[in-house]
Amino acid sequence: MSVVIVGSVNQDVVARVDRIPGPGETVLGSSLSRSGGGKGANQAVAARRAGGADVAFVGAVGTDADGAILRASLERDGIDVSGLAEVTGPSGTALIAVDELAENTVVVVPGANAALARLTDVQRIVVERSRVLLTQLEVPVSLVRDAAAARPDGAWHVHNAAPSAPFVVAAEDLLPGIDVLIVNEHEALEIAEVADRDAAVAALAARVPALVVTLGRHGSLVVVGEEKVPVPAYTAHAVDTTGAGDTFCGVFAARLAASGRHPEDADATLLADAARWGAAASAISVTRPGAQDAVPHATEVARLRQESE
């Protein structure tokens, strides 16, 4: 399997609002929608649909109706769900508010995503077939650590440290198993525990073989050793930024898998190319509502790349 994602899968419940409410405030929404979400599942859909990779998803859903819906949704995208366990109880849920400026707030109730501390035997077999392992932190840190240890020799471990709070607590356990760390600017500052972006980049780059910092409309920065490559963003009229970072990560992982290269061969040129593809897919995704629903197809991403050259 080219790309294996170990992570969360949620039922997203999205309310469109004029503005995000403040503490104690009630606002009226203009619409309500439900769709597949979760950082792990979003990244799996992006790696498959926008990145064109063979993808397997490892995680857990509950025994509720949402669990069956979420599994079927991943299957429709051609994703291998043999590693998607079913555990007693509810599936994960994300409550999302999106305002007219495309900004959002998200509350995640983990449900089944919190149930697995280690890989099951079936899940371990899936991970052992990976060329690129992609993880995040809406699942227990122990599961991420177990997956990193189970990947085969020569396979990449790309880790998206989001949300960043668990990473801050468990950094010393996670860092030795990471080949590429992906964070946004806010996450970089929180993990490095500094207030300056350049200082945060320097601190994190010194602790991992490769670092990618996404900067929203300012693009991203790829750092491998002493090499630093800024990657520009694509111009887009955003209507909903939910899942944009996940789209970037999924396509980034797919491009690494397609390169046929191994972590020991990593250089900034390779990772910057993967970041450009991720940026193109992300730019398209923000022009559409939703997370997985907004992920473009590989042909659309290739067209934008071609038109922008």
Could you characterize what this model shows?
- This protein is α/β, with parallel strands linked by helices and 309 residues long.
- The chain has a single domain (3-20, 31-308), classed as Ribokinase (UDP-N-acetylmuramoyl-L-alanine:D-glutamate ligase), CATH 3.40.1190.20.
- 37% of the residues lie in helices and 25% in strands.
- It contains ten helices and 13 strands.
- It has helices at 39-50, 65-76, 121-127, 141-150, 164-174, 185-192, 197-205, 244-259, 268-285, 298-308, and strands at 3-6, 10-17, 29-37, 55-61, 80-86, 92-98, 104-109, 132-135, 156-160, 180-184, 210-214, 220-224, 227-231.
- The strands form two sheets. The protein has a nine-stranded mixed beta sheet, with helices on both faces. Strands 3-2-6-7 form a four-stranded mixed beta sheet.
- A hairpin with a 2-residue loop joins strand 12 (220-224) and strand 13 (227-231).
- It is globular.
What is the CATH superfamily? Ribokinase
Number of strands: 13
Task: Give the SSE order as H and E letters.
Answer: EEEHEHEEEHEHEHEHHEEEHHH
CATH architecture: 3-Layer(aba) Sandwich
Termini separation comes to 31 Å
CATH class: Alpha Beta
The largest β sheet comes out as: 9 strands, mixed
* Structural category: alpha/beta
Q: Main sheet: which strands, in order across? A: 5-4-1-8-9-10-11-12-13
Rounded to the nearest angstrom, the radius of gyration is 18 Å
- Give unreliable regions as ranges: none
How many domains make up the 3D coordinates? 1
Query: Helix content range of the residues, please?
Result: 25-40%
Beta content comes to 15-25%
Based on CA inertia axes, which overall geometry fits? globular
Tell me the number of helical segments per DSSP (H or I, 4 or more residues long).
Answer: 10
The name of the CATH topology is: UDP-N-acetylmuramoyl-L-alanine:D-glutamate ligase
